[in-house]
Amino acid sequence: MGKSNPTLYQMPVADIEFLDRLVDGYYAIDFNWNIVYINDKAAALAFSTKEKMQGRNMLKLYPTMMNMPFGKAVARVMKTRNPERIDINFDRVGRWYEDYIYPTVYGISIFSRDITEQRALTDNLKFLAEASKILSTSLDYKTTLRRVAKIAVPHIADWCSVDMLDEKNNLQLVAIAHKDTKKIRWARELRKHEPVDMSSPTGSPKVMRTGKSEFYPVITEELLRASITDQARLKRTLGLIKELGGLTSLIIVPIFLQNRPVGVMQFVNADTKRYFTENHLKMAEEVASRASLAIENATLYKSVEEELSFRKRLEDELLQTQRKYDALVESNIVGVIIADLHGNISQANDAFLRMIDYTRRDLEKGNLKWTELSPPESAEADRNAVKDLMEKGRATPFEKEFLRKDGSRIPVILGVVMINPQTTECIAFVLDITERKILEERKDEFIGIASHELKTPLTSIKGYVQILERIISQTSDERVKKYLKKTNTYIDRLNSLIADLLDVSKIQAGRLQFNISEFSGAELVEDGIDSIQYTGLKHKIVKKGRIACRIRGDRHRLEQVFTNLLNNAIKYSPAADKVVVYVKINKDLLTVGIQDFGVGIPATKQKDIFERFYRVEETSREFSGLGIGLYISSQIIARHGGKMWVKSKKGKGSTFFFTLPIKKKV
Ligand code: ADP
Fold this sequence. Notes:
The chain is of the alpha+beta class and 666 residues long. It has 22 helices and 22 strands.
């Protein structure tokens, strides 16, 4: 023992032996504040030793003591002789003590117990209770986590933060609490500029990989220097810690979602020299697991909510669609029918019933059958539509006629879509095109009348020009002859245009008549070629193949078809210098092909060119014409029992084919 003081109260030896072994701190002072006895534990608390302290005077050792709550309490007990209890925070070691100050016969004695753990436990429990309450209330998990982090500071930790994985699997800071708001801002900024390196072997990335907590109860600079070998990283880490305000103890716990780590919660002790214990770790894990639950509930709730709102949207959309459909059906602007492919009509709106002049009762009695409502001429269009519906689920809009109750006909255009392939139920939209048909007829009629009216004076002009030619043939003025010849050519061209127009109106009215005779197929082709070739053009017409056959039909009309195709071939190949004509006999069919090396026809337009007045837009400006030649030709060929089609490539040229049935070989 240290210097002995003869005036000092001598403790009984038995007591000393007992007190020396005490785990708690114990010391006794006399009325003059001299230390009569102090055990090792209590001396250690003062960062000293028993030997150094025993016999010394407290007031001299700690001159400021009387200003502190502890000194004041001791003075009070000295005076009042009433025992007191006081909690003391030893900031330097980050621990809490509970001191009992008793009056004794020689002065007072102080009994000092370390209650750091106990206090931590109470704090932990309090935190856990509060955190659980927060986690079970709100449904927005980010807000919840922020609130949890907030209550962890300062009793549990100096820092508390939560990071969650984003879509790119990087940790994003979602919550952070620190007693110093400047530090929060700093941490946020830092994270923005320097994302967490997910490949780091320690810290949160490790927790994310293993799904296990990381616990560093005591962190010292030496420890860091020993564990981080990469100097640059060490320097960065130490700099970070300095900015943090120190790092003495650290807990990182994982947050799970469906058994997969999706985030981490970090508890940090910085400058207070507080150290986390196993208890803190347990508490942290408990909070994290409750947070996991809260997130799971929140996402579950969210997905249920999303599902519900999705369904609601779907229902709304369905309702909207239904309303639109109802509006369409009820508006009766177009006829709407629901029918299967066997021709049973199950539903029809008033507009359709009005069109065909049947009643709703007729429909309900099942009297309406597609086939019975369709004239034989529409059968082919119907068959094509059924084929389309079976193959593609919808039919390209097509024209047909329906039979009214009184047997009269109504022209319609139809769009049909399959709505149930199992039952073959289809929905058809029917548009009455009577008006359009009337207008078309009127137009055709007009064309017929106009061309007829034009033809008469033109014939007279032609006659007079011929007379003029004859009179002038005596003169030697070549210019007059030349101009008359030109006039004749233009008259011929005008004539053929008018003749074509007349043909169209005749075809439309079903009045195109044929003068049937029998003649040689080879002659038909050769005469056709000659008539064109000798008009003195630059194209050479080359014939390939030889035929010998007889054809029955209107020779004049068939020559018209052939020369029309030859003229087109020449017209649409201004840069070429030849046209090839192929002839071939196959069984009882003559096939003629006229090939040019001109502008060609885009694939999408090839089926339209046989329509009345149709001209390919891309070339219509460059080449004049009415768009009726091919229509007339294909009609003439069809009336002779043949077919007409085209093979063409844009920019490369076209080959038009037609077939004709032959009578017999000669
Ligand atoms: P047009 O008086 O316009 O020539 P047609 O009925 O003869 O009328 O032809 C219809 C359309 O088909 C033409 O406008 C043209 O676009 C296209 N066509 C016809 N023949 C050819 C061809 N040999 N080469 C390229 N396009 C052609």
